[in-house]
What does this fold into?
Amino acid sequence: MPRMKKWFSILLVLAGLLLGTAAKAQNQDGEFAVFSSITRYLSQGDVNSLSSWFAENMDVTVISSTRSCSKKQAREILRSFFSANTPRSFEVTHRASESNKKYLIGQLNAGGELFQVTIYATAPNGETYKIQQLNISRQTAVY
It folds into this structure.
């Protein structure tokens, strides 16, 4: 009987640790909830929905071409990219934040190639987050 109590106690401690880890993950996702829609739109190649997150003026880099452009121009640049590179999936590899700024790095599988996507979004004066910079570059092999 004492042995059973010991195992039960161990199971309770493990359950508590697991629940604590899950709660931290939920809090972390909550902090980065702004990216949940953005990542979904990237994986679908949904430029119209994605562009609703664009700032009125932003920097866009696609492969090796960088432009400071309007929201409308950025939409057309991405539309062109996605028409040539049909998205299959998008996976977040890194997220970071500081006051009113969020960063995301992810891997986009599109058109049979892998691309690294970096997004920088800000929320000036606590407003809605808007993408200020979007960078899409070809993924290079790592050996």
